[in-house]
């Protein structure tokens, strides 16, 4: 009986250990995926920084173009009647520069939003990685605890077997003593 209990306990321990090992593997896979996504967010942040630099260059060009168109309008006004067609062109260039400037501001706002979102996602992923590492540690602790339970169960079974053996020895001794005394013993 004790042997059967020991076998059943060991089978349960093995099942529990297998489940915990599987959970640890899955948690490690999750950690790898989160880490990969975090790396991709880092790359996205770098690309957004590059786009920001390009937008700043475009904004600078738009500002310079606006100033040039303003200077051209002044020169067209000085030229009088001969500068009227040039003044129209200067005005169109100025409007294009203003539209470009507005578009770059809109792009900059969108980029700022993207940067905030990626920073938030990056921060959340680091929290997830910390939690995953904690989960792996806890699963390892559970595996260790199951191992101790198994060892303790084996000790209990050994004690029971030892006590059972002692009971059998005591019963055999009693039979032997009774036989020596001459009393018939029924087996």
From TrEMBL:
Name of a matching Pfam family: MCPsignal
Q: Which SUPFAM superfamilies match?
A: Methyl-accepting chemotaxis protein (MCP) signaling domain
Q: Which GO terms describe its molecular function?
A: transmembrane signaling receptor activity
Q: Which InterPro entries does the UniProt record give? A: Chemotax_Me-accpt_rcpt, MCPsignal_dom
Q: Where is the Methyl-accepting transducer domain?
A: 1-187
Which Gene3D superfamilies does the record cross-reference, listed alphabetically? Methyl-accepting chemotaxis protein
Please state the protein's primary subcellular location. membrane
Q: Is-annotated flag, keyword Flavoprotein?
A: no
Q: Which UniProt keywords apply?
A: Transducer
| Record's subcellular location | Membrane
Recorded GO cellular component terms are: membrane
Annotated GO biological processes are: chemotaxis; signal transduction
Which protein family is it in? Belongs to the methyl-accepting chemotaxis (MCP) protein family.
Output this protein's name: Methyl-accepting chemotaxis protein
